[in-house]
Amino acid sequence: MEELIFKYFPNLSRLQREKITALGPLYRDWNQKINVISRKDIDNLYLHHILHSLSVAKLLNFPDGAKILDVGTGGGFPGIPLAILFPQCHFYLCDSILKKIRVVNEIKDSLLLENVYAKQIRAEEIDEVFDFVVSRAVTDLSTFLPWVWKKVKPGNMDGVPRGILYLKGGFVNEEISLAAEKMKIKMDSFSKNEINSWFEESWFEEKSIIFIKR
Questions:
Q1: What local confidence, expressed as pLDDT, does residue 40 receive?
Q2: What is the 3-state secondary structure (H, E, C) of the chain?
Q3: 19-62 pLDDT tens trace
Q4: What does the alpha-carbon distance between residue 44 and residue 203 come to, in Å, rounded to a whole number?
Q5: Domains by residue range for the chain, with CATH
Q6: How do residues 98-123 score in pLDDT, each as one tens digit?
């Protein structure tokens, strides 16, 4: 299963490979105790959750030292896989449901992910600013953006534009237009990036990353 990740990310270090491999048994074990992934979906952990999370890295290479907020992380996606891939970055994973954050903390402790901090809190209650926000479609974009827009620093970081990376399925053009109008953000600040341009598996058809430059 983990070979799917190594196929698309062949240059991982030995330690990164070990941590990616460990995710499977860790999530299987914890999911039996606290259901954070659909029981029907746990067999697709590497495709539906880990590789999906890592699509962010195909779009954007986080600069060392970047602070990234993962909103509605659930069981730790996309934050945990991205924290393995970017050990020099700092990840703040938040979710409103305590049992999910408990699983995230157990997994990050098992993997010795010192670059991950997880807390039960709503995004709108966080009093910090970040270089990037990531999320896997916790709600529609026009609802989500007001929660996080002012939590992202404007401008570039080491030549990389700061912003929000929103993983979303289905037809998103209308959703982008509504969000742009509501937030009074120029349309050229939005880009829709098809995940199946990087990954050949059919599951990624009609799945994209909406990137909103800050």
A1: 87
A2: CCHHHHHHCCCCCHHHHHHHHHHHHHHHHHHHHCCCCCCCCHHHHHHHHHHHHHHHHHHCCCCCCCEEEEECCCCCCCHHHHHHHCCCCEEEEEECCHHHHHHHHHHHHHCCCCCEEEEECCHHHCCCCECEEEEECCCCHHHHHHHHHHHECCCEECCEECEEEEEEECCCHHHHHHHHHHHCCCHHHEEEEEHHHCCCCHHHCCEEEEEEEC
A3: 999 999 999 999 999 999 998 899 999 999 999 999 999 999 99
A4: 11
A5: 3-213 (3.40.50.150)
A6: 999 999 999 999 999 999 999 999 99
